[in-house]
Design goal:
This protein is α+β, with helices and mostly antiparallel strands. The protein is 63% helix and 12% strand. The protein has a 7-stranded mixed β-sheet, with helices on both faces. Strand 3 and strand 4 form a beta hairpin. It is extended and about 75 Å long.
């Protein structure tokens, strides 16, 4: 047993020495190795960060345990156990892909929201999706006002509010006006607290928000409105509050409360802060690029 282990380590060491000798003879190979290591390290880091936020993390622990047992069975010459583990492992990989297909899909979706992808034209799709979500949020808020149903919708922007999301019940659903209205229906399990929208998804419901306790805030301002002001002060999130007493909509931005906001005004506010400010830099870059291209074309025509 120990002889096999010794031979195994000896083979690995010899392969390592051979590879290092090859690298010393070719500096370019060393550069590609460093690039390779950086890319792999980045991918592993992003994967681990995502995995810790989902049930994939528990799965990885199970896979690691199985791999360790397989390695031990190989070293200790436990042939039956090793045969069973190695035989069923390929089928296990296929089963894991099927079972965790939703998680894999979300990982690819998050890749699509990466800043790097904007240079390939995908960034524009996020702008379109955000605008569609704004219309859905406005529809939901308007529906809540009709029935004087209290509501508190928080839209995450650049500052991460994952701690607030974790305080509620995870939803992880596409933005839907029907779902938002149903979440605030009185006497339902999730009607208390805030609905958080993050990365173009309804991330969670029944979330607990920090209350603003400023002396400048009027005493008649209710808990829901104070919570909206509180989250807008502690982050750059936008809070939409629907009063169950008056049915009126208020919007909290940067610690300020805009009261009695009508449907069209709400849409304009959200477009201003979620579209115009967020995508202005990218839009200006595209316009500038097109302008330069047009000027170069005109110069070429003039030369001819």
């Amino acid at each position: 047993m120990f002889e096999n282990l010794k031979l195994s380590f000896s083979g690995i060491w010899n392969s390592f020495l051979s590879y290092m000798t090859e690298l010393s003879q070719s500096p370019f190979r060393l550069l590609t190795l460093l690039l390779d290591l950086v890319i792999v390290a980045y991918i592993l880091y992003k994967f681990i960060v995502y995995a810790k936020k989902s049930r994939v993390w528990q799965l990885l622990k199970g896979i690691l345990f199985i791999l360790i047992i397989t390695a031990i069975s190989e070293v200790l010459q436990l042939k039956i156990l090793n045969f069973l583990l190695t035989f069923f492992m390929p089928y296990g990989v296929i089963a894991l892909i099927v079972i965790f297909a939703p998680e894999l899909r979300r990982m690819l979706e998050q890749l699509g929201t990466n800043k790097i992808t904007k240079y390939f034209g995908i960034y524009k799709d996020i702008e379109v999706k955000t605008k569609e979500d704004i219309y859905k949020i406005v529809i939901a808020s308007t529906e809540l006002t009709k029935t004087k149903t209290g509501g508190l919708i928080v839209i995450e922007r650049d500052i991460n509010i994952s701690d607030i999301i974790e305080s509620g019940v995870k939803i992880d659903s596409e933005v839907s006006p029907q779902l938002i209205v149903n979440l605030f229906t009185p006497n339902t399990p999730l009607h208390d607290g805030a609905v958080i929208i993050s990365n173009n998804k309804i991330a969670a419901a029944a979330c607990i928000l920090p209350l603003a306790d400023d002396k400048e805030i009027a005493k008649e301002i209710g808990t829901r409105h104070r919570a909206g002001i509180g989250i807008s002060k502690e982050s750059d999130a936008i809070a939409i509050i629907v009063s169950e007493e008056t049915g009126k909509i208020s919007v909290a931005i940067d610690g300020n409360l805009i009261a009695d906001v009508k449907e069209e005004a709400l849409k304009n506010i959200l477009i201003k802060y979620m579209i115009n400010k967020r995508f202005a830099v990218e839009r200006n870059r595209r316009v500038k690029k097109l302008k330069i291209k047009k000027e170069n074309k005109q110069k070429q025509n003039e030369e001819h």
